[in-house]
Amino acid sequence: MSAKTKSVRILAEVEATAATRLARLLDASPAVIYSFEARGDFSPTFVSDNIARLFGYAASEYLDDPNFWRERVHPDDLPRIEAEMDVLFKAGDHVSEYRFRRKDGTYCWVNDEQHLVRDEKGEPAEVVGSWSDISARKVAEEAQDRARARLALLLDTAPSVIYSFKASGDYAPTFVSDNIKRLLGYCPDEYLKNADFWRARVHPDDIESVEAEQALLFERDRHTAEYRFRKKDGHYCWVSDEQHLVRDEKGAPFEIVGSWSDITDRKNAEAAEDAARARLSALLETAPAVIYSFKASGDYAPTFVSENIKRLLGYCPEKYLENADFWRNNVHPEDLALVEAEQAKLFEKGRHAAEYRFRKRNGNYIWVSDEQYLLRGDDGEPVEIVGSWSNISSRKQAEQAENAARARFDLLLHGAPAVVYSFEAGSSYAPTFVSDNIKRVLGYAPDQYLKDPDFWRSRVHPEDLAAVETGQAKLFEDGRHVAEYRFRKADGIYCWVSDEQPSDPRREGRAVRDRRLLTHARIFAHRSGLLSILYAQAGRQLSKDNHFNKHPSYGRSRMLIGPTLTRYSS
Q1: Are residues 28 and 109 in the same domain?
Q2: pLDDT exceeds cutoff 70 at 100
Q3: Pick from 347-351, 379-383, 479-483: least confident
Q4: pTM of structure
Q5: Any residues with CB less than 8 A from the CB of 457 and at least 6 apart, and which?
Q6: Is residue 523 pLDDT above 70, yes or no?
Q7: How far does CA 320 lie from the centroid of its chain?
Q8: Number of C-alpha atoms within 13 angstroms, CB side, residue 474?
Q9: Residue 336's domain spans which residues?
Q10: Residues 6+ away with beta carbon under 8 Å from 322
Q11: For strand 253-262 and strand 494-502, is the pairing parallel, antiparallel, or unpaired?
């Protein structure tokens, strides 16, 4: 074999090996290599065999059909891609992305990179390109775009402005969410292009303290501050500024990310609450009652007491709050058992009031009215008891004095020689009061008078009744009237009585002693009277009344006639 023949054979073997190697590489390539003429009918000239693996087509389907590519580009993308072809012939290279229909009819996204090959004259000769399936990347990009759009929407509608700036150097702003326009009135560029944007808008009274606290961010990596910030319209709003320090891989401060939240409404509410609390505190401090509370179960630990406990009882609030036995230790020993026994009523009715003696810090006891209200939880179980202690010592002393006066008055009435009575001055003339000594003096039980509107009329001697009733008009004319007539006692015997009636002392401002008497006896009537048994010489009286001399009760009644023993006058 000649040397030339041998060289040709070796060259052929090398070419075959290279072709095989190239075919194997192209088949394994993630991109389809193709080419077509750059003039004339742009007919296909080459395509790699991996077109079958990547897109499902046989190489011949591309090579035998000049319209293969055009017919498989998505109709919505074709006009744009064809319009971009001029770029290839001008620049020599071009990259485009579009949807391409596979053999199975589904579309995939391809990256089409093309290079223009020119002949020795510089004229376009051939276009060599590659199709790479970028569907996975496009899906990821679309998901990323959706996420970015979602994030943009969230940031735009969020109640807080998100921002960031460098954590060193010039501390230049790096980002701000678009909702800064809606929430604070500023365009994003006003923040991004001005390193002093923030400092120039913090309230002058707040800037010093806020900047002094900034060091905490670099110590703890997080920090929150509240201060006033000037909006675009010139008005200040309260913001909560929450910051997070981002560090680089070496641990050095890299960037600060934060948020501004408008908390003006909350601050206004807090200010109103503080004012209300101060007002309540002032009211409680000056109130005449101590307000307190304690748990309604368990250890019954105290939970609250008003500051006026110091003024009213002498104790510091801590004395109550830190001692669960405070109340029990200070209730009078003689009252404690009864008060505790009645405590069950609170849990039955939800409310309860008790009166007892309570020791002040100075050791003296006072009377208090203790009104309690039971608070229950959503489950109906007792949670807390709220109550008040009111000093009722003055009232108790008045009641004791009144009781003593009443007892004294009752004693006087019981031992008095005159029966005191009252009845309404209206149409019914109903009895309203009679002293107990009516039993001793006239023999009647008080109820016999009180329950019978005709008691008096039915017992006045029939021969005296008309004259007595006629003279009754003088009471309303003169304000006072005295009559003497015969009155039948329970034993049936008539006795002479002096009936003194003053008009209502409240109406005329007269009969002061009567008024005191009626007040202590709690007689609230329009008229009052006094029955007095007269002791007089029987002969003088009987000589004036021959009829009475003939009365069957003569022998006994004459012993009851005498001078008036009691008289009430103005």
Answers
A1: yes
A2: yes
A3: 479-483
A4: 0.47
A5: 465
A6: no
A7: 27
A8: 11
A9: 287-391
A10: 302
A11: unpaired
